[in-house]
Structures are given as structure tokens and as C-alpha cells.
Amino acid sequence: MKIIGLTGFPLSGKDTVAQYLVTKSFKMLSAGDIIRTAMRAEGLRLDRASIQAYVTRQRALRGDAYVDEEMLPHITGNTVISAFREMAGVDFFRKKFPGDFILLEVAAPIELRYARAQMRQREGDIISLDEFKAQETYELSAPGYSMQQVLDAADARIENSGSEVDLFKQLDIILEKYGI
Known about the structure:
The protein is an alpha/beta fold and 180 residues long. 53% of the residues lie in helices and 14% in strands. It has a single domain (3-170), classed as P-loop containing nucleotide triphosphate hydrolases (Rossmann fold).
């Protein structure tokens, strides 16, 4: 059994990578979906700042790896998990699945990711490029976030600034490297 964790900034292509892995018989779990579902149940806004505040509160109450612990019972075979933004989750899965957890960074230029946000139009996406950059800077250094450490801890990096075909070729090379 292999567990592939995905990290990267919003709109880098993590979900596209996860969906591709589903075609390779992986089950997909999303930390963001778990968080957004809980927030909807509480009637909270789903913009990036609200999500960050919610996660910070939940970590203080339940521990840094609370979302990871909620995912654990759903892992029954090869699984792809999106998205890691703090080292507590990475450490949690590396301890639970020694030798079977692989962390992949999906990267894309900020301008391309911003354009994707404008097309997606999820709550909180319609902001200026400067605001988008400021949110990213916050995630790199905010208390309770260790995004730079997570990016540095990735076992491999996939550049997603070209076509899906190029993206999937890179992913296939990585999968082959890890015997998947």
C-alpha cells in the first residue's frame, strides 16, 4: 500500500494530480474537503482567510494533526491525500506509514495559479493579484503553518505550468521511480 501526499499552493494542480492517481486505482482524500464540510455545517464563510482562522482554532482545540487523524480510517489501500500545508500532517503519515508515504509537491507560477482562481470562482477567489500574493506570503510564515517546511520536505516536485499531458508524464516517471 502506498500513500501519496500532495502539497503545493492553491491552484497548483493538486486535484488534477489526485484525479489522475484515481485512474491508477488510488482512493482520493482531501483535507480541504473535510475542513470545508465542517465549516459549511457551522455556517462559516469559505474564503481563504476564514479557512485559515478555522484551522488555527481547530488545531488549538484538537491538535495539529486533527484532520489527518480523521482521514486515517478511510485509508484502506493506495490513497492520495490533498493537501498538506503543515509538517504535523507530514510527520503523522510518515510515522503511520513508514516507507509507504510519499510527499509530492505540485508547483505552478503564481500568475498562472491566480488566472486559474479567476476562472474557478470559488468563494474567496475573486481578489486582486496583490491580495492573492499576500495570502500566499501569510501561509509561508503564519503561526501554525509550516508551508515552506512542507515544500522542502517533499520527496519529489512536479512542475505544472504546461499541458496535462506534460504533467502526467512527470507523474508517471515519479510513480515508476517508487515502483507504483
